[in-house]
Amino acid sequence: MSVFTTVTPAQLTAWLKNYSIGTLVALEGIPAGIENTNYFVTTTQGRFVLTLFEKLKARELPFYLNLQDHLAGKGIPCPRPVPNHSRGFLGELNGKPAALVSFLPGKDIGAPAPAHCAEVGAMLAAIHLAGRSYGGSMDNPRGPGWWKAVTPEVLPFLGREDAALLEEEVRFQSLRRFRDLPRGAIHADLFRDNVLWEDGRISGVIDFYFACTDVLLYDVAITVNDWCTGRDGGLDRERATALLDAYRRIRPFTTTERDAWMVMLRAGALRFWVSRLHDFYLPRPGELTHAKDPGHFRRILWQHIACEHDLPQLVS
Predict the structure, then answer these.
(1) What are the structural domains of the chain?
(2) Is residue 254 classed exposed, middle or buried when 0-12, 13-18 and 19+ CB atoms within 10 A define those classes?
(3) SS3 42
(4) Per-residue pLDDT at 176
(5) Residue 313 backbone zone (phi > 0: left; psi -120 to 50: alpha; other: beta)
(6) Helices (H) and strands (E) in the chain — how many of each?
(7) What is the pLDDT of residue 310?
(8) Mean pLDDT, rounded, for 207-234
(9) What is the DSSP string of 159-187?
(10) Is the pLDDT of residue 289 over 70?
(11) What is the predicted pLDDT for the residue at 288?
């Protein structure tokens, strides 16, 4: 269970006096996730999710919480932050910034079909359009500058071949900048476990705590890399085409985006390979935590490089 900061029922009961959501009935740790501490919270007025932020600072959190509130107001099925008695979304619990958000029903799926991928593509495009009117801005904390800083820390743990691949891809990405690509608020982590489903439809999009202001196409690449790849890291053409076609019907791709697509796919794979290497080899102390396999995104990156000319292309 990814619980870095333990919260007892007595502690939460006292903290909930800052909110108008009833009294505590049940508290349950959530096993998913490696960045924050999460609990399901049931009160006499409903069910919520409590997040204690382990890395993010209080000054950074208004961007994420206000974005979720904005998107929920635009009809996106994402968790809506619960205001406290002071009308703020952020508090402090056991020395950590903490927030409550609405609970969303549904379960994630592990083996998506093309129809699921189409739903996800349409939802991602809707998020990007809804985000156009969001006034907040946040530089990507896991962008190229972060890749460069973290790479020297993880290189000593890698074999010669993986180290060479990592260094070369960081160099490759540093030489390519697409300054004219459409930008805006992006989710930046729309993996299978961050989308909930009920009766074959999306019932919730969760975990916006990697959201930032960045290239929209980068968000598309991150999503395709998770939803449309197999265990060998190769892209499934049918699933990728379904996702991209559904997306472009809501927000058409530009010519510049079509030119940048292959680079963005590789950038999305690199970002998560580096972060998983860092979490795997340099974890911070925690209670029953787990880190995900870094090799998965190494395989995706390698497949993108090896099969560049066979990858699904963007169309208008």
Answers:
(1) 9-102 (3.30.200.20), 114-310 (3.90.1200.10)
(2) middle
(3) strand
(4) 87
(5) beta
(6) 9, 9
(7) 84
(8) 96
(9) -HHHHHHHHHHHHHHHT---TTS-EEEE-
(10) no
(11) 41
